[in-house]
Amino acid sequence: MRAYLLIAAMWIRSTMAYRASFVMTAVASCVVTGLDFVAILLMFSRVDALGGWSLPEIAFLYGLSGLAFGLADLAIGSVERLGRRVRDGTLDTLLVRPAPVLAQLAADRFALRRVGRLAQGALVLGWALAAVEADWTPGRLLLVPVMVVSGAAIFCAVFVAGAAFQFVAQDAAEVSNAFTYGGTTLLQYPPALFAQELVRGVTFVLPLAFVNWLPASYVLGRPYPLDLPVWTAFASPAVAGVCCALAGLAWGAGLRSYRSTGS
After folding, report:
1. 100 φ, ψ to 5°?
2. Does any domain span residue 161?
3. Sign of torsion, CA 156 159 163 165?
4. How confident is the model at residue 66 (pLDDT cuts 50, 70, 90)?
5. CA 219 to each of CA 26, 142, 143, 213, 233: distance values in angstroms, whole numbers, following the listed order
6. Could you give phi then psi for residue 50, rounded to 5 degrees?
7. DSSP state of 133
8. Within-domain flag for 170
9. CA 20 to 30 Å from 250, out of 20, 44, 97, 128?
10. Residue 150 pLDDT exceeds 60
11. Number of structural domains found in the chain
12. Least confident residue range of 16-25, 72-81, 170-179
């Protein structure tokens, strides 16, 4: 963590040297990511519900997914550049430094402008919390930050696992993006809209459903996807821990297999 924070702080100082540029890019990021929610608003200008879910309920899913992914993308999204480093051999530079390679890679070119995505997700989630009709018990209120933190950890694990795959594929960033950026888009909509096979895949194979679908179903009093038991709504922290452990193993195996470019 110390190495990560030092490198990230260096890039933040570099970014803040041009504050007007930072503000413009952060605002642009917020606006561009907000277009996804504008599309949802346009849908609801024609329908009253989507898959049986109201606009505030879908905004709740959207905000949770966007905020969790935004945290992961800000913290560790730079690992998606690993394929390029493997291909051109610049990963060797990180290997000879006295700091963990993953920490260096995650903090490399730390993009503070990504706070725009975070802000947009937080705004939608804040509105959803105020507008959604739910029985706000202390347990349900506590589950909201747990969902955000656990979801961010799950997305971080997916980022790291995707990076580990690039040790083999060398340049497969788009494959990883299908599960990270594609995953967050999927989770913005209720599971009732998707085929059961897809819902099973993102529950039992790549457990993105634990980011928001399952715990949000408990908070909103909605039927659980696949008729899963009630306790699965509270399993997100455990699932996040298992995902991070598996991603760590995949990263270690990928790093040990690295043989440079040979050039």
Report:
1. -60, 135
2. yes
3. positive
4. very high
5. 31, 10, 8, 10, 9
6. -125, 110
7. -
8. yes
9. 97
10. yes
11. 1
12. 170-179
CA distance 161 to 205: 13
| Phi-psi label, residue 165: left if phi above 0, alpha if psi -120 to 50, beta otherwise | alpha
**For residue 219, what pLDDT band results from cuts at 50, 70 and 90?**
very high
| Closest among 60, 78, 56 to 8, alpha carbons compared | 78
Burial (CB < 10 A; 0-12, 13-18, 19+), residue 13, is exposed
Distance of alpha carbon 152 from alpha carbon 118, whole angstroms: 11
Per residue in 109-121, pLDDT tens? Answer: 888 888 988 999 9
Q: What is the DSSP letter of 54?
A: -
Where helices occur in 89-137 by DSSP H, the ranges are 91-95, 101-107, 115-131
Q: Is 263 inside a domain boundary?
A: no
pLDDT at 262: 57
Confidence at residue 188, expressed as pLDDT on a 0 to 100 scale: 92
How confident is the prediction for the chain on average, in pLDDT?
A: 90
How far apart (Å, rounded) are the C-alpha atoms in residues 142 and 140?
5
Within a domain: residue 22? yes
pTM above 0.90, yes or no: yes
Q: What is the pLDDT of residues 226-243, one digit of tens each?
A: 889 999 999 999 999 999
Residue 241: closest CA among 145, 150, 160: 150
Domain limits at 107? 2-257
